[in-house]
Design goal:
With about 675 residues, this protein is α/β, with parallel strands linked by helices. It has three domains: about 40-280 and about 420-450, 3-Layer(aba) Sandwich (Rossmann fold), CATH 3.40.50.300; about 285-410, SecA, preprotein cross-linking domain (Pre-protein croslinking domain of SecA); about 460-645, P-loop containing nucleotide triphosphate hydrolases (Rossmann fold), CATH 3.40.50. Strand 19, helix 24 (about 580-585) and strand 20 (about 595-605) form a beta-alpha-beta unit. Bound molecules: adenosine-5'-triphosphate. Adenosine-5'-triphosphate binds near residues 120, 148, 552, 557 and 587. InterPro entries: Helicase_ATP-bd, Helicase_C-like, P-loop_NTPase, SecA, SecA_CS, SecA_DEAD, SecA_motor_DEAD, SecA_preprotein_X-link_dom.
Length: about 675
């Protein structure tokens, strides 16, 4: 019976929509509840994540068909194209994202509009990446494959269907750059675009979140969510929000965001994995109360001896006082005026933090001192984390060590881990060049399935291997020599030298200066000139020395002559704790089928080997007959150390999540959440 068939079809469509949250939800602040629906047992989830990751040829074929259909839009005049966009918006509003044919039509229109506004039409592989994300998945697209314009596909489609969309970037520079570049495309579709960056006041942020699509960093958007949670107070149920929306809560300010609907996360592994080891804590600064505690603590611990009074676990950034250490701290603090010294736990905590401040946190690696302030540098992005501070008195101890003005201590108002925050989006999606190896964890923690998208053109980048030197001095000399050789023997190709810290970037610049080569430095101290340094880095003869600021997301465009000379040459001067960050840096060369090359020059006393493979490093050093060491032994040491570091970080992420779970339970029990 046709009626029955129609009924079945509509019931199926309805079910699909309900399951996939495909329609706009008419709720005041949509977000998912804290319990994820895909969860089994963690080991099972990890296996499922691994099994689900892979290629999807049928999806690539669908993307190719979209690209072909989009060619038919080329002859349309502008008015016709705009009319089609407007008509499609009405249909998407009505049907949401449940109809694949509407999504395909929308993608074809986005491709054509992007072609007219930016001069780039999406390749089929980019359309495939967009399809993965509209479905709520994670697309692995290699570095340089054009993820910036790929983000337009899910963001515009979701926004046309009436969903507020948040596009996450790893730093403010990229949020502003991408928004400025893509704004004409969004506007052509009649969509508004907001940007949230550090330093904006609340009314400005609120206005940005009213836009159809918002670009911002994970930190800014998560903190805005925490601010809303604090404003909602302990009873943050849906009923309270409806009441607040209907009748207003005149005593309070309106909320900042409109809820968590659709997230498109660029550089997803950086946000979901690398940054997920520490929870985000929203805190209020208390007035500075300098009673001399921090200086006294530094003074006291300077009298202690490592091994006898305390032990340091550098890889975990942890300090442990020994039995003797406990006794000596008690003795030395007797008679000190501050009350903290009277309480055993408080006394030992401040002493351990003071040791950490002196021994574990280094200037120009973990932080810089600028404008008379201690500013934390995020190693994975190479950038200053403005207005961030370490907890538990550590920040003030470092300020006391650096002899700058002490800031106030901070009181926690709300906290959340990225694992918990992103799970609250009704639809979560993302992309990155380096996600496949983290697929099990991404499924287990975020319910995200990884799809590998093929490259548009074959990769022409060549790797020239890895040299391991006996010490830092010979490493810097070898780096300078490698730069000189490439410049002189390979037609002045542009060179990018990547370093792990501000201090190292300056050491390379000094080594280059000794051989008479001028360079530009891009690090947390030079961030104001970033756009200009990046723009010049792909020209013939350019030598750029950079921290990870020139890593993820940085697009170094080659000049014609640089392309002809062989493209960008990237030199890594130290490996990171995860090979994904190394691959991101290498990925600045050989983009979109461009020529390019990479090489690594490291030293056996590099932090990675010293912390994560100390015995193997010592054994290799003892048995070395000649330096530098190349080939298999050098690569084995690297793999060994990075494997140990990755295991340690995975355990630490799990630990963060478990402690957060425990904390949430305790707070619920005591009635504060
Ligand atoms: N469809 C296209 N047609 C022509 N050029 C394109 C196209 N898509 C991207 N590009 C160009 O490719 C380069 C790389 O793009 P983009 O920076 O977005 O890559 P990415 O995948 O985000 O890289 P990363 O992984 O390093 O962040 C840019 O110069 C961009 O203009």
């Amino acid at each position: 019976m046709p009626e029955l068939a129609a009924f079945r079809a509509s019931a199926r469509a309805l079910w699909r929509e309900v399951r996939s949250d495909a329609r706009p939800v008419i709720a005041p602040y949509p977000e998912r509840g804290p319990a994820p629906s895909w969860k089994w047992d963690r080991p099972v989830d990890l296996l499922v994540g691994r099994a689900l990751a892979g290629e999807r040829p049928a999806m690539l074929a669908r993307a190719e068909a979209i690209a072909e259909a989009a060619e038919a839009l080329c002859p349309l005049d502008d008015a016709d194209l705009d009319a089609r966009c407007a008509a499609l918006r009405v249909r998407l509003m009505r049907h949401g994202l449940s109809d694949p044919a509407l999504i395909d039509q929308c993608f074809a229109l986005i491709r054509e509009v992007t072609g007219r506004m930016l001069g780039m039409r999406h390749f089929p592989v980019q359309l495939m990446g967009g399809l993965v994300m509209v479905e709520g998945g994670l697309a692995e697209m290699a570095t340089g494959e054009g993820k910036t314009i790929t983000a337009l596909l899910p963001a515009i489609t979701g926004a046309m269907a009436g969903m507020p969309v948040h596009v996450f970037t790893v730093n403010d520079y990229l949020a502003e750059r991408d928004a400025a570049k893509l704004r004409p495309v969004y506007e052509r579709f009649g969509l508004s675009l907001g940007v949230v960056i550090h330093g904006q006041e609340t009314p400005e942020r609120r206005a940005a979140y009213r836009a159809d699509v918002v670009y911002g960093t994970n930190k800014e958007i998560t903190f805005d969510y925490l601010r809303d949670q604090t404003a909602l107070g302990p009873k943050r149920g849906a009923a309270r929000r409806v009441m607040r929306d209907l009748f207003g809560d005149r005593a309070r300010e309106p909320l900042i965001m409109r809820g968590l609907y659709f997230a498109v996360v660029d550089e997803a592994d950086s946000i979901f994995i690398d940054e997920a080891r520490t929870p985000l804590i929203l805190s209020a600064e208390m007035p500075a109360n300098d009673d001399g505690l921090y200086l006294a603590a530094l003074e006291l611990v300077r009298q202690l001896e490592e091994g006898r009074h305390y032990r340091i676990r550098e890889a975990d950034r942890a300090v442990e006082l020994t039995e003797r250490g406990h006794r000596v701290v008690a003795e030395l603090s007797e008679g000190l005026p501050q009350t903290r010294w009277r309480i055993r736990q408080a006394r030992e905590q401040i002493a351990s933090q003071a040791i950490a401040a002196l021994r574990l946190y280094q200037r120009d690696r973990d932080y810089i001192v600028a404008e008379d302030k201690v500013q934390i540098v995020d190693e994975s992005t190479g950038r200053v984390m403005a207005d961030r501070s370490w907890e538990g008195g550590l920040h003030q101890l470092i300020e006391a060590k650096e002899e700058v003005e002490l800031s106030g201590t901070r009181n926690t108002m709300a906290r959340i881990t990225y694992q918990r925050f992103f799970r609250r989006y009704l639809r979560l999606s993302g992309m990155s060049g380096t996600v496949k190896e983290t697929a099990p964890e991404l499924w287990a923690d975020y319910g995200l399935k990884v799809t590998v998208v093929p490259r548009n053109r074959p990769n022409l980048r060549r790797d020239r291997g890895h040299q391991l030197h006996a010490d830092a001095a010979s490493k810097w000399a070898a780096v300078a020599e490698a730069v000189r050789t490439v410049r002189e023997e390979e037609g002045q190709r542009p060179i990018l030298v990547g370093t792990r810290s501000v201090g190292d970037s300056e050491a390379v610049a000094a080594a280059l200066d000794r051989v008479g080569i001028a360079c530009r430095i891009l690090n947390a101290r030079q961030d104001a000139e970033e756009a200009e340094i990046v723009a010049a880095a792909g020209r013939i003869g350019a030598v750029t020395v950079a921290t990870n600021m020139a890593g993820r997301g940085t697009d170094i465009e080659l000049s014609k002559e640089a392309h002809a000379a062989g493209g960008l040459h990237v030199i890594l001067t130290a490996f990171h704790e995860t090979p994904r960050i190394d691959r991101q840096l290498e990925g600045r060369a050989g983009r979109q089928g461009d020529p390019g090359s990479t090489q690594a020059i490291t030293a056996i006393d590099d932090e990675l080997y010293a912390l994560f493979a100390p015995r193997a490093a010592r054994a290799l050093k003892a048995s070395a007959k000649a330096w530098p060491i190349e080939g298999r032994p050098a690569n084995l040491l690297r793999r060994w150390a990075q494997g140990a570091a990755e295991r340690r970080h995975a355990a630490s992420r799990r630990q963060t999540e478990l402690s957060e779970e425990r904390l949430q339970k305790t707070m619920a029990f005591s009635g504060t959440a």
